[in-house]
Structure formats: C-alpha cells, structure tokens
Amino acid sequence: MIKFRCNCEKKIGVPDEYAGKKVRCPACGTTSIVPFAAEPKIIEPAPAKPRPDTYSLSNDDDRSSIWSDDLLEQTQPVADIEKNTCPECGFKVSANRDTCPSCHYSFVPDVSTVVPVNAPRGVSPFKRFVADTLKVLSPIGSVGDILTLAIATAIYLLPILLRYSSIYGLYGSFIIQGYFCTYMFHIMLETANGEMRLPNLPFSEIEEIREPFFRFFVSFVYACLPITLALFGVFYWLNDMEEISDIIDRAVEFGVPIGLFFWPMTALTFALGETVLVRPDKVVLSIIRTIGPYLVCCIILYLAYYLSFVAVGQLSGLLLGDEPSIENIIAINILFSIAGLLSQICAMRIIGVFYKHYKDHIDW
How far is Cα 316 from Cα 314, in angstroms, rounded to an integer? Predict the structure, then answer.
C-alpha cells in the first residue's frame, strides 16, 4: 500500500498498483498523482479491463485495502466515456481535454474542480444555436476574413460584366457561378465542423472544387426537381396556359422556392451524412425534430435567394425608372449582387451552425 498526503494535508492510502495514476481527494476534490513506493513492486498485468487514468475516492465503503487517517475509502473508476465526442452536444473533443469547449460538459464526474464557476452549464442546444447564429451573422470575424471577402466579392461580380460580352463571357459567367456554389458548400462544411472563419479561396486542387460542386448540384436537384415535375404535371393537367414554355416557367417559379425548404437538410445529408441515398421520409422526420432552428435556416436562405435572383427583376424598374442607362443597370446589379453574396454566406454558415448543434437529432 502507498501512503501519501494531499496538498490539503489529508492522508490517503491506495493499493500499490495505483502508483503513477491520478486519484481524487475526498476532502478537497483535487486530483493528485500517486507516488511510487520506495521499492515499487512488479505487478503482472491482469487480463481484466484496463483502468482509466483518473479515479475518484468516496466514503461509501470501508474496504481495508485503502487507508485514510480518519476513515476507510474506496476508489471508484470514473465511468468510461468516449472522450473524442461530447455526449451532451456531440462536439468533437481532443482526447487530452477534460471539458468540452462548446458546451463545457465535463468528462470528470466532480465538475466543481474542473469547470469554472461562471461557465455555462445545462445550456440547451437551441440557446447555443442562437448564440452561434448571432456570431456568424456578420461575415467578417477577423482581418483574414476581410481579405477573403474582398477577393470573393471581386470574383462574384465578374459575371455582371461578362453578361454583356460574347458567348465566351456567358461560359465564363457559368463557370464562376459553379465555382461559388462550391465555395458556399465549403463554408457550410467548415462551419459545421466548428470553424467560425471563412475558408480561403481559391482552392489549390481540382478535387476541392469538383466533389463539393457535384454534391451541391445533386442535392439541389434532389430537393427541387421532384416538386417542380409534380407542379408541371398539375399545371399541364389543368391546361390553363397555351404554351408549354409557360407551364415550365410557372412550375420552376413555384417548384424551386418549395424545394429550397428541403434543401438544407438534403445538402447536409449529401455533404456530411456519408451517403448519396437520401430517403425523403428521413429528411422530413429530421426537419420535424428540429423545426425551430431549421426554420431560422430557411428564412435566411429565402432572403439570400430573393436578393440574389428575384430582387433585381422586381425592384430595378422601381429604382431605375422607365429608361435606365446601362451604367445605372450595372450599378443596381452590383448592389444586389453584393447583398446576395453576403446573404448567401450568412445562410451557409447558419446551416453549418445548425448541424453543429443538432446533428444528433438528424435521422440519417
């Protein structure tokens, strides 16, 4: 048996096999490393389950194998906890941490000796979601974000100028739009993994562009195409329009906004669910389970959609008059493009924050 004193002067005795391990003092609650005996015994490893690094001493038993100056105590191993995943919020935590940096959950049962007194405890996922949402409403969180946002804005505005050039300009505009679809997907993924800064661009490898663009495109088609086709069938059956092109335009006009409601959950499934087999019933069930924060994501997403694709057509006539000049048209397009870019970044980051705090509620 090894006998030693804690920093609070309480005498503690533990079996020899605890030498070099951590125990918690029952008097003051601090952890101490058990010193080795003068002549440590060589103990053959037992086939039993390995003991954890930290042990908790309690006053519940009077086993004679453990000695104290005023009572006999028993060492109780701390329950085995997967330390790379927080059981409270699901945040990925490094193995050498005793508390979760996201929700301050303690992996040691006696949290009074590990967690600061003023640390938030028992905070609901929705409150953490709201707190992080307020942080990402601004696209600028550091000096590096300012430079990244400036480069992204400059590239994003190129299609406005290319739109008035030749057919090659239209191809260039399409490539840039696809590039930004990839970048928005990267923003969502990085935020879902806990990174609050904007990811850098341009990307260094083609794989960083090709696979995210594929997942973005497939998730968008998966969410919007079935609804659009169903509306096309309804409008065609009603036959209230003479031209087939009018039916297609009407189906797209209503089908895409409805499909956008299901797109965040579908995109998260394609991006982080490690599967391309998305079941509609699981998507709907996951939305129902997280309807409150999910509606917040959808509201910001609809705002981004309106500013990026609808506002220019609806408001340009009111702002420019009947005979606008080409300079005024370009200026109003630049204004709404910048507003659309900022709202898209905000929407992608909020969707990432939603996954960060509610991934355990998603039924994949």
Answer: 6
